[in-house]
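Explain this fold:

***
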Amino acid sequence: MQLKQSVLFFKIAALTSAIVIIFVSWFLYYEVSRSARLTAQLTQLQTALQRTMDQEEHILIRAQKDDVSAIPQLKYSYQDSFSNLLNSMANEEALLPLLLQLDELSKAYFGKLDELIRLHEQLGYDENAGIYGEFRRSAHALQDRISGKAMPQLEIAILELRRREKDFLLRADLSYLQQHEQIVMHAEQLIKDNALSEEISNLLKRYDAGFASYVAILRKLGLHDGEGVRAELFTEKQKLRSQFEIVSIRTQAVTQELKESIILYGLILIVLMNIAVLILLNYQNSKVTRHILAINKVLVKVAKLEDFSLRVNIDGNDEIAQIAHQLDDLLAFIETLLARLSAAQQRLIEEAKMASLGNMVSGFAHELNTPLGVAITSQSHLKEQVATLKSQLELGKLQRQTLTTLITEAEAALYLLENNLHRTASLVDDFKLVAVNREFEEKSTFNLKHLVKNVFDCYQSELNQEDYAIELEIPENLTLISYPSVFSQVVGYSINNCIKHAKIDGQKLNIVVSTVLINDYIHFYFKDDGAGIDKELLPAIFEPFVTSKRFSGGTGLGLSIVYNLVTQKLKGEIKMQSPAHGGACLHIILTGTEFNFTEE
């Protein structure tokens, strides 16, 4: 199998794995959403049932008509929630029987709740409704009829009868019922003994029958929590809650099993595909490793030895062999190209040297143009004056005044000629120092502070105290083993730069020369607080003929000479810094200079 076919297989395997992962992820998301929806519907159903049970508790406690009227709406809410849940679980064979069983238990509970409501409706929701209202009205009528009979014993019996009635209703104690029956019998006997009207006897019987019916319904409801309809209703609630818990646990188990199955099958499929890919990779690796190692071996040798004559020399026609053949062709091409480049490089080096020399000569010629031009002009003028003098002398017309004038002009021309020729000679000497070709004296040991001070003394006439302040922060016992004349030139050119470029009219210039020992190297600083250096000039400050005062006598060779002296003769490093607020600092690191601190 070629690499192209292998790569295609790998792409198909990767794409299939991605599709499987996407499918499994989507199915998991669907199942998680479905599980969340089922859980929410179960919670909604349980909430509806719990609200019904809470309302039932209110009915058992106070039996108000408003509490009873809310039951139909709560039953409807429960049934609606149950229908939604049933629709969601229609395809769940494992959960559907449990849900139907839950429905049967809920129907039994609601049946008992309806029975409870019917019994409370029979009793009456207030003192004037239902059986309670009937026997209460009978009692009031009986009390009204006997109030004018002047029968205190019967009135007391009726009052005791009502008291026992209230005691029973308040405490639900059957002993009060027995006392109530005895008092009823006593009242009947008093009515009979006093030959009272049949109406009073009937009122007493109606009251007694109504109270007995009321008590019978109470007993059916249950005088206590563990009796009657109340106990049956509590039992149905417990069954319903237990079934709810079973349905909830089973629903979570079924959804969890389904999600685990999806993950398991997805992982099995991905593992099988990865195994197939690994087998193919191992086959391809064993097939191409030898060729790749051969190519790598040649490349390492080429990189290390820079020998482009090496070749891979692999046989075959697969992609790796084709790469090897192309690599051999490339190495052959590079070998030929390098030979051609080497020849071209030599030509370019010579051309670069000539171009650099041309630039330097052009700048040097520009600097020489002014003094030489003035010298030539002076020489021409002097030549004309000599010719005039000779002509008048031959004609015998030379006068004293004319001679005096000619001599004065000749002297002026000679003065200009001498000064400009001296300036030209100085430029030539400075230009020769840029290349640092001349031999300096041998190395010697000297005190750096004393040398710097001596150089400043040479410029004492120009560095007057009113315009300049000099400060030397160099240890007294610091000695260098180097070239003192080189250091003298470096300091001298630096002083010249301060005088020509740093001094601001009307402002005193402070010059500080200091040394610091850092990492076993002497750092030499020449700082001033003058005009500073333009940021455009700073990057090229050490190049020849770079100056900001070309038309004021500056040549632009001073720092170039310093740079060459430091880097070539002293083997050190040099930097120029000029902060935005003004001033400049020449920083020289004497990496190639020996030093010591002598004992004082």
